[in-house]
Amino acid sequence: MVKKTPGAEISSELKELLSIRHLTKEYKKGAYLFREGDSVKGIYLLRSGKVQIGKVTPEGRELTLRICGPGQLVGEVTVFSEHPLYMLDAKALEDVSCIKIAIQDLEDALLENARLAAAFMKWMGIDQQKTQTKFRDLMLHGKKGALYSTLIRLCNSHGLEKGDAILIDLVLTNQDLANFCGMTREVVNRMLSDLKKEGKLSVVDGKLLVRDLRHLKEEINCENCPISFCRID
């Protein structure tokens, strides 16, 4: 049984980022912190609001990889490289307040503080693993794998135990789910309807209630990756 685990708490080592020179930034809902292909200017630590990390496919379809919240770092940053570019988009889903640390100031701090450098590299590794496992599921397991793995990730990130079921404590439209899966809303509608008919899933006050998480895992031969990787935050 999955328990809700906090993903929004920054580690004590990474809190040292707050001692680096930084700017306080505010973004309105719908604004972009950065776009895919932009030159890397810095990294962002969220104080309030939610940010969607994703990209637009060659077909023009929106693909959501993660939703980050307060206390989390945002920025696909490659440090100590020449002319790095952001590989993904970061879009404010709500009004966002954050601090922005310039890439040069970040690199200087990492050179001077070994403990901070180790913590930052660990965060980068987990961040990359989240993205890689997401793309793996999309490529290897087809449409069912895309939806089922997304539901599993949502349970790991926002799940609340309700008896033998897990309530995903996040209001999502079917279009939101489609964006996570890289599919059309119509396909997601049909697959969710099938799960409801089978008694594996229901909706409570606009939120998804997963009644049989084991079924979802078995259907896609879930490898039981560490929960730190198998998340959408």
TrEMBL record:
Signal peptide: none annotated. Keywords: Activator, DNA-binding, Transcription, Transcription regulation. It comes from Planococcus glaciei. InterPro entries: cNMP-bd_dom, cNMP-bd_dom_sf, Env_Response_Regulators, HTH_CRP, RmlC-like_jellyroll, WH-like_DNA-bd_sf, WH_DNA-bd_sf. The lineage of its organism: Bacteria, Bacillati, Bacillota, Bacilli, Bacillales. GO terms for molecular function: DNA binding; DNA-binding transcription factor activity. This is Crp/Fnr family transcriptional regulator. One of its GO terms (cellular component) is cytosol. SMART domains: cNMP, HTH_CRP.
